[in-house]
Design a protein that fits this description.
There is one protein chain. By secondary structure, the protein is mainly α. It has a single domain (about 40-325), classed as Hypothetical protein af1432. The chain has helices at about 5-15, 40-50, 55, 75-95, 100-105, 115-125, 135-150, 155-160, 175-195, 205-215, 215-230, 240-260, 270-285, 290-300, 305-315, 315-325. The radius of gyration is 22 Å and the shape is flat.
């Protein structure tokens, strides 16, 4: 009786596109290891990411709005799940490898900073070599997880994580699906958050955009996925139609103008910059104050890199806690001697 993995290989050969990345054709891992009888390498990668510490921390990292007062605002974790869902939908429509898409999507933002893209901009100014969250996400899976041993993921997943930004050039069509899914997801759920926060009204979206993409989030997502299907099915590329791509870019530009770079969205960025800057300077001067895992990383790399690794790993609330612990005086406890 064949093991489950072999059955998966057979299904992929029969039903996936000739341009799909078959699980059995992976270029492998950085370090060889014994394969699993039940799961393909891409399925194992997905499981490793789900169970890693960096993935759990995403639930308390900002997407756009700092520490929003409300249960329904998007966090870095819910964004990641949105991307995984859209990427799988694209892969299913195009007969590509859903497991590979999901693994890339779940890992694509593991290296993101506290306080969203504001935190990324701040660390990029502080770090001698700059800071880019896609590169840090690869560093998380290669080096930082499992106390410095890394997750030892496949080439295809690591490549997709590294190249998920719009400027990237993924080696697989599955990686391209995740890149497109990332943009579809953040434009739409960030728009919903902006409406929820009172920054925008649905009627503020220019009519030339809504005529192509629709007025509701589900309409816009469906329009994008449908466009990718009709433009890319059976082809060796993944892209939207020119009309939908143009409208999506217009919506993205609208969001940057009306949401991402507004005083409302960045109102707390000055405080975040002072907080992260003070902590960065403090830990570079007092490297022994880092947790032991990061002290060991300073010996392997540089102290500046180890400090960036530590600060970028923080959730928003842990960054505030650490700052207060270092810089805010504690109250004294005393006994009233008159009693």
């Amino acid at each position: 009786m064949p093991v489950l993995k072999e059955r998966t290989y057979a299904i992929e050969e029969q039903f996936l596109s000739p341009y799909a990345t078959k699980s059995k054709d992976t270029k492998g891992r950085l370090r060889e290891e014994k394969p699993c009888d039940m799961r393909t390498d891409f399925q194992r990668d997905r499981d490793r990411i789900i169970y890693c510490k960096a993935f759990r921390r995403l639930k308390n990292k900002t997407q756009v709005f700092f520490s929003p007062e409300g249960d329904h605002y998007i966090t870095r974790l819910t964004h990641t799940l949105d991307v995984a869902q859209i990427a799988r939908s694209l892969a299913r429509a195009l007969a590509l490898n859903e497991d590979l898409c999901e693994a890339i999507a779940l890992g694509h933002d593991l290296g993101h900073t506290p306080f969203g893209h504001s935190g990324e901009r701040i660390l990029n100014k502080l770090a001698p070599g700059g800071f880019r969250h896609n590169e840090q996400s690869v560093r998380v899976v290669d080096v930082l997880e499992k106390d410095g041993a890394g997750l030892n993921l496949t080439f295809e997943v690591r490549d997709g994580i590294l190249n998920h930004k719009k400027s990237g050039n993924p080696a697989t069509l599955e990686g391209r699906c995740v890149s497109i899914a990332d943009r579809i997801a953040y434009i739409n759920h960030d728009l919903e958050d902006a409406v929820r926060a009172g920054v925008l009204k649905p009627s503020d979206i220019p009519e030339d955009i809504t005529k192509v993409l629709g007025t509701a989030s589900k309409e816009r997502i469906n329009a994008a996925i449908t466009s990718v299907f009709f433009e890319s099915y059976g082809k060796d590329f993944v892209r939207m139609s020119e009309e939908v791509e143009k409208a999506s870019e217009a919506l993205r530009a609208f969001m940057f103008d009306k949401v991402y770079f507004t005083e409302f969205a960045r109102g707390e960025e000055g405080k975040a910059e002072r907080m992260l800057s003070y902590m960065y300077e403090y830990f570079v001067k007092n490297i022994e104050k880092l947790p032991a895992t990061y002290v060991a990383l300073a010996d392997r790399f540089t102290k500046e890199q180890a400090v960036c690794d530590y600060i970028s790993s923080m959730t928003d609330r842990y960054a505030v806690y650490t700052f207060n612990k270092i810089f805010v005086p504690r109250g004294w406890s005393f006994v009233d001697e008159n009693n």
